[in-house]
Amino acid sequence: MKNLLNVFVLAMITVFSITSCSDDDAVAIQRIDSNLTLNFEGLEDLGADYAYEGWIIVNGQPVTTGIFRVDANGQLSQTTFTIAQEDLDAATAFVLTIEPSPDADPAPSDVHILAGNFQGNNATLTVDHGAAIGNDFTASTGKYILATPTDGGSDTNENSGVWWLDPTAGPGPGLDLPTLPAGWIYEGWAVIDGTPVSTGRFTAAAGSDDFNGFSGTAGGPPFPGEDFLTNAPEGLDFPLDLSNRAVVISIEPVPDNSPAPFTLKPLVATVPANAVDHTVYDMANNAIATNPTGTVNIAK
Question: What CATH number is given for 33-134+292-299 in this structure?
Fold first, then answer.
């Protein structure tokens, strides 16, 4: 009887094992995948240390759709990703972020550059979506003057500094820009003989930026800007004349992927060839030309 009982128990264990394996196989077979296809315009090459990552929002939580890079010609390293159909069916939005590479954190970074809601199987992605930067910057405006207030009272190099302020307003801010979300910061630039030179990063138009490494010994005004008087980068000579050169306001990721301006450049201007110091000049709005865009398609 004991031997018969052992045989019965062994038989039941075998049946249970077979049933369990069959259930696992059934679960695996039941998963259905679909392709998510990405198309972008205006994304830049992030170099070796950063990459783009896509996310779908499923039940309020981000689910990664995969990592890709963009080359110098704007071509994506991968455009189609295989995703579980049940996640795609529940997805309400798509978000594109910039991530460190390699990335030890499985969650999205703060640097959200594009986002869009799904309408059926498609989503149109823009920078002004609430899950991205939240503004398209088309209403942004800028004014600047040439002056070198840190030159210790000298008036011989006045065209060697650019300041985003309006002297007719008290002085007041020369920039009208929205507040940026976490992950982004503004930066000013002068393009000198083809070389972009930073004037500093800032979060508010009514306040100093974070750089004065080219300035003189006197204090500067509490607005973004810089005097190009000392410590010139290699290949450049200070002081200089900014006439007929470009000045730019860009929007940079934090942390920054490059010493050059990022693709988002909402305000640009060419300083007049006959520029007069302490005279207010307007910047042009360049947002539409530099805002990246994208679309996402689910192929069921």
Answer: 2.60.40
